[in-house]
Design goal:
The chain has 29 residues and is mostly helical. The radius of gyration is 13 Å and the shape is rod-shaped. The protein is built from one helix and no strands.
């Protein structure tokens, strides 16, 4: 159960990272 939560948290963090990176690129360009 904690394993699923860990993977879910990792996936969420990765998705947020991609969104923030994409937003920064869009703003800088």
């Amino acid at each position: 159960m904690s394993s699923d939560f860990k993977w879910s948290l990792t996936a969420t963090a990765f998705a947020l990272f991609l969104v923030v990176t994409y937003s920064l690129i869009a703003v800088l360009n």
